[in-house]
Design goal:
- The protein is an all-alpha fold and about 220 residues long.
- About 65% of the residues lie in helices and about 0% in strands.
- It folds into 2 domains: about 10-145, Ferritin, core subunit, four-helix bundle (Ferritin, Up-down Bundle), CATH 1.20.1260.10; about 150-185.
- The protein has helices spanning about 10-35, 40-70, 85-115, 115-140, 150-180.
- Bound molecules: fe (ii) ion (2 copies).
- The site of one fe (ii) ion (FE2) has 7 residues, from helix 2, helix 3 and helix 4.
Length: about 220
């Protein structure tokens, strides 16, 4: 069951973890983009350089939000794994990005629980970038982008959909009930009188007489 409680203090701690992860990503991309060797990795090396610049922007955004919440941004990065093998470097990056996306998704929910919708919006924008990083890395490794959705995220989404369907059915039922029990009303909200058509008197031939219409005009309506 997902934890539905959060305080501003706890959010500051969590955002500081995110900031450490952003520092880790900056260092990893700065180094990996320069040491990747081999013609087949030149394209992705160029992409990693771009990632490094984007991770710096993310770090600045998160740092700014921590300051807004009254906290002190951390100066400590998470540990950066290194390798001589290009494929291993890319895999480390992909794993780190997966972890980042999982955490930011959770962060969006926590920010919204606290009513901090603007911070949630900033994190959503960062998430768009992180998702692109995952796509770049998975493509370079020749694999599909891993699914990082947590079981509780799926359960929560299913509950929201079920609640919406239930609400819709309840509304439709209510409308039907209302229609069954309510007399027709005019636009002004007053009950309308149902007009009955007056039958015209008929002559011997069975045809309507010339002056039998209510206005006295032949064939009037
Ligand atoms: Fe980032
Ligand atoms: Fe990233």
């Amino acid at each position: 069951m997902a934890d539905l409680t959060i305080t501003r203090g706890r959010l500051i701690e969590l955002l500081n973890e995110d900031l450490s992860r952003e520092y880790q990503a900056i260092i990893a991309y700065v180094v990996y983009s320069q040491v990747l060797k081999g013609a087949e990795y030149m394209n992705i090396a160029g992409e990693l350089e771009k990632h490094a610049a984007q991770e710096l922007k993310h770090a600045l955004i998160i740092s700014n939000q921590i300051d807004y919440l009254g906290g002190m941004p951390t100066v400590v990065p998470k540990r950066v794994r290194t390798s001589e093998k290009p494929e291993e470097m890319l895999r480390f990056d992909l794993e780190a990005e997966n972890e980042t996306v999982r955490n930011y998704r959770e962060r969006v929910r926590k920010c919204e629980l606290l009513g901090e919708y603007a911070i949630a919006e900033h994190i959503r924008e960062i998430l768009v970038n992180e998702q692109e990083h995952r796509i770049d890395l998975a493509t370079a490794l020749g694999e599909d982008v891993p699914d990082v959705t947590q079981p509780e995220e799926r359960a929560s989404a299913a509950r929201s959909v079920a609640a919406l369907i239930g609400l819709g059915l309840f509304a439709v039922e209510g409308l039907c009930e209302l229609r069954r029990h309510r007399a027709p009303v005019s636009r002004l909200g007053r009950p309308t009188r149902v007009r009955r058509r007056r039958r015209r008197p008929r002559g011997r031939t069975g045809r309507p007489t010339p002056h039998s219409s209510p206005g006295g005009r032949p064939g009037g309506c």
